[in-house]
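Contributing: when you submit paired examples, paste them exactly as shown. First protein:
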Amino acid sequence: MFSQIKLDLKILDSNLKKMIGARHPILYAAAEHLFDAGGKKIRPAIVLLVSKATNTNNKIKNEHKRLAEITEIIHTASLVHDDVIDDCDTRRGIQTVHNTFSNKIAILAGDFLFAQASWYLANLDNLEVVKIISKVITDFAEGEVMQGITNFDTSISIEDYVEKSFYKTASLIAASCKAAVMINHVDENTQRIFYNYGKHIGLAFQIMDDILDITGSETSLGKPAGSDLKNGNLTSPLIFALHNQPELIKLIDREFQEDGDQKKAVELIHRTHAIEKAKDLAIEHAQASLQYLKTYQHNDFIDTLKYISNYIINRIH
């Protein structure tokens, strides 16, 4: 899927470890631990594709490469903190940072990565890009607070869920897409197009991940299935199922504390059309991302961005 930017992504992989460059070996080891696990690199790949799609020479500037790296560092920092909050045992198939080291080291490693990303961001010498990417870090915090105060709350609406998903996931993709266009000094309408592409593709990805948390296996997810249920994070499949399975409310009210509660909840969700409704919601956002791309001039990199949207649609059918 990313053959056009394969070399760029390979360089990005090697640069990430150089960029974290912590002086204290424990801090470096904690940050390196998660980078060693790999990951899909979807976010930096999208940044690089948007960079090429909106550059008249279809070239990637050094600032674009650094923006892609910053995007992945910010994303990784948020994962380290999320894992502490949710007490996840594994991430990307390996032990989480706080399990390998400690909660304190994991929090400090996450803070360090955010700080490093901010430093490299400032060195782009582009105030508008600094503003839009800096806002993402506050969005992460707002999204985490929104999730925290709605844990095990059966009154949460789909609208609340989508808003939280924007802050926690889509904000970074949307902002980095817009920033990539800004570095190319392209007009505000084009910036808006790619911001909205990133927003909707980000929401589609998040909804799809939430579906897979219910339907996937630990092997495919790289973390235990049903972890959202355990942490009281009520996602779209569960929210849609609540209307048809009142028994779910009892399980949520007792916070899945009894043996078999999580398994029972998954079974109840599968007895409804909730998974299909959640898939429809993801498809709606993937199709919205395609609509924004239709308004932009055609090139090979736009085709790849469209392919990503279609990949999501086909994957969840």
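Second protein:
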Amino acid sequence: MVIDFATEIPAPARPVKVPEVTMLFWLIKMMSTTVGKSAADLLNADPRSGLTGYCMVLGILLMAILPAQVRSRQFTPWLYWCCMLLVGMAGALLSDSLIDQLSVPLTYATGLFCVMLWITLAVWHAEESSVSFRSIVTRKRELFYWLAILFTFALGTIAGDWVAENLHPGYAFTVLLLGVALGLVAVGHYLLEFSATSCFWTACVLTCSFGNACSDWLAQPVHDGGLGLGKLVTSGLFLLTTIGLVGYLSATRKHLTGSQWLE
């Protein structure tokens, strides 16, 4: 089965349940990835004392926030981004647990999550004839959307670790390398007129990898090539910034009036 990522559904009459894909969207998504990665790293440092409790709390929060997001009849910034943050934490925990707890090699784990993401998009496309991020107007489509987002977080985490550990470019150069990759996606969309949907899902994965690389660069000790802020400070800094930006979007309603980053 070949997924036609170029297939776009015309703008529906019902409200779309996701925000406009602006630069602020990518910035907040990147920082939510960093928060999830930092939290997962802190817990995996001593998994016996905190991992079980963390999974329970995360599961309870997801069961409360995700159904509320899916049942809502319009886009609500704080609800959407709380869901994105929790799904990001779940994706980071899923990928780190696969590597650290089950000792699955990074190459195999990367391939596994690539397959899982492809299967999700393939089934979604078979059911709805599109995987467009502009058509999230039904609960079924939104559930597919969040499942795909979960696997982009997991794949982005694993792929970022694979680049850092197998290519050994150093934390700063990894950030630069992934930033260039994101820039190439933008060039492909703007100048080469690649499908907006293809660019969106590619950028979703790369943004997660970029966020993880930023987390490592900021948190790791200076003698290891990082900036030495520590995981707790890094996670807190990005969490507070995320909260501030979501508050800004809620107050200004930029998610309704801003120009599309991918059109």
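If you have annotations for the second protein, write them as plain sentences, like these:
Residues 23-255 form one domain.
Confidence is low (pLDDT under 50) at residues 1-13, 257-263.
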